[in-house]
Each structure stands twice: as C-alpha cells, then as structure tokens.
Amino acid sequence: WDGRGRLVNGCRGPLLLYAGNEGPIESFWAGNGFMIEQLAPAWGALLVFPEQRFYGKSLPFGNASLTDSKNLAYLTTSQVLEDYVELLAHLKATLP
To answer: Any residues with CB less than 8 A from the CB of 66 and at least 6 apart, and which?
Structure first.
C-alpha cells in the first residue's frame, strides 16, 4: 500500500477486498493473479483477503464450530458480510 493511489481526502489509496470462498484462503490466493498482479499494483491499493468464518483456520468456536449445531446459526451470508463491514471499518480507522 504505497500511496500512489492517494485520494483527495488523505486516504493512502483504495482498499480492495476479495470476498473469499468457502474454504481456506490459501486455496484461492494463487488463483487471483488479476487482483494481486494487476489491480492492486496499478492502483497502489491495499489488497485484503479475509478468510470466511467456519472455513480454513477461522473457527470461531474452535473444534465445536462445526460439531455443535447451535454454532451454525452464525454460518450465514449476513454474518460474513457483517464481518467484512467490521473489518473494513477497523482498517479505515486504524491505518494511516
């Protein structure tokens, strides 16, 4: 995030968010050359690859994440989108 995409409001540049898939994020990184090799460098952007909850290493209830059915209430598209909103708000508030 080198600042080449600096915006008039002082932001260092755009944040690009890859919204992920249902699996470990490492499985999708290599298949996203366009974002990694083209878009982010061209725009001086920060590329964020959050891993969706309940997939890969993101188990909010540890080993009980997928074995206790009451925990699966948090495995929804709405919850994932709320996670992204929180993550982007945090990044915007804490990054220079």
So the answer is: 54, 59, 72
pTM: 0.77
Phi and psi at residue 45, to the nearest 5°: -95, 155
55 touches 87 (CB < 8 A): no
Q: In the structure encoding, which two tokens stand for residue 26, read together?
A: 């490492």
For the stretch 56-94, pLDDT in tens is 888 999 989 999 999 999 999 999 999 999 999 999 888
Dihedral angle of Cα 10, 12, 17, 18, to the nearest 10 degrees? 160
**C-beta of residue 13 within 8 angstroms of C-beta of residue 44:** yes
CA nearest to 58, candidates 48, 47, 66: 66
Exposed/middle/buried for residue 40 (C-beta within 10 Å: 0-12, 13-18, 19+): buried
